[in-house]
Amino acid sequence: MPLRSSPRYGAPSIEDLIARRDLSAVFQPIVDFDDGAILGYEGLIRGPAGSPLETPFALFAQANAEGCVIALERAAARTCIEAFARLACEGQLFLNFSAGALRQIADASDDTLAVLRHAGIEPGRIVIELTEQSAIPDVGSFLPVLATLRTAGAQFALDDYGTANASMNLWVRLQPDVVKIDRFFIHDIASDPLKFEAVRAMQHFANASGAKLVAEGIENEADLIVVRDMGIGCGQGYFFGRPNAQPARMVADDARQAIRAGHIAVFPETTRSGGASPSGGMASAKMLVHAPALQRHATNNDVLELFNRLPDLHAVAVVEHDEPVALINRRSFMDRYALPYHRELFGKRPCLLFANASPVIIEKSMTVEQMAKLLASDDQRYLADGFVITDNGKYAGLGTGEKLVRAVTEVRIEAARYANPLTFLPGNIPISSHISRLLGNDAGFYACYVDLNHFKPFNDQYGYWQGDEVLKFAAAVLADVCDPTRDFLGHVGGDDFLILFQSDDWQERVLRAIHVFNEGAQRFYAPDDRLAGGIHGEDRRGNPTFFGFVTMAIGCVHVESDGGPTLYSSEEIASVAALAKRRAKQDVSGFVLIEADESAALLKGHAEPPQLAS
What we know:
By secondary structure, the chain is of the alpha/beta class. Helices cover 43% and strands 20% of the residues. The chain contains 26 helices and 21 strands.
């Protein structure tokens, strides 16, 4: 018999606890978001209350030291099953097992079923969770274990997905009925765009595989509503209840109200500059010119023959072992050959004689920002010579300065549709997407179009750099008045912003934004202009005009829920909100509200037609 470590001083051994049946069970509810009901409980084990072995961590650490982890797992399962039966709880019972314990249970399935039958629990109510500590060296040999358990009627869950051994490899090969997302990904998901994207990827795979997702670690309303609105069906965490020997049979009122909350979540957007900037793959694809290359030993006659055969080729790369070593520009080369006797003198000489031995080289994976630095660098050879594009150091093709400028511009414009490059706020595509989600969920909201009065003359006089500072200040003011869990703030472009309010006190927030901005914007003016109350400039027709300080105007449109008069698309909402903004610019308060019935009339042509902001 192998030697075992002695139990902690003053604490019984695990075998003693099992023999004396000195273990107890607690249960944590798992909630279905569709109806707010408890669909089942996870059974968890506890040692003697007040002892050093009370917690599961201490229990299993001691069991590992004594070499009886599997025995403890089986005793824990028996304890949970019997306690669950005594409580007469409805729904499913989730039980944790390691891979080793599951093998033993499968080998003695009749004994396990006997325990269930004796307790009066149907095997179909059991969900077996494979714990994250379980490494499975040979997944293929583990599949029959699952088949045995499923034949007995139990379901199988992959626990704590995303950590330790719970990997996509296991998901694909074991095909679990349930996948429990680890609490790391759920905690603060309402404000963490990377966690949100990770869980959304899990959700896509769950939809493909047919697995049900359970979000673990839900501790607040904001995280719950994001998870709910993502379409994840079930959740578990302290927000619904802590593990308890006498678990609640119904979800508490505050949790039920949160599940049924009428507002929809504002999904966190990946709008940091690094996240918003696209990779160079899109840009390099736009400017890549597939062109033949010449080997290093080629002659100038070979270059001439290639240029004559391909009249549109602006340059040719010289390569050695598929790696670029030089670039020959067509115009420079042909100008030399036009000189008397150059063909006769240099035709059979190596092509490197007239080549640029240090060409500009762009790796295909280079980021757009790195490419853009070329445009601002002192080395402008690519404008005349073009440049070489490589793929992992190997020659892929050529590019021109014109194509580089166009590609960087197009990619940046496309990126700005998703996130504004100045404020990093969501751009037009996320704005339209969120409006569609609001309409699709029949959520009432206020669409508020924000514009800055006298911004253009300020920008003209103080310059774009100072104008950008004003725009960033406006974005900060608007973000400060928004509840990030309810209110969506986007940057349409220029000095135009759009807020989609679900906060009940939205009007108070709007008026606070106008006041704070109008007061703070004056600090961007020179002292003399502050004393004068504004600046002198020209209007759009070139007439001398005095312009007051930059101020904020916000026009709002009410979009009702519950079948009232409504608008039907993001374009219509943006149009009417833009009209409200134009009215607000003429109002001394800087604020105008258009109610839903007037919006419907505007769209039907019973009032002045809506106009989108320029």
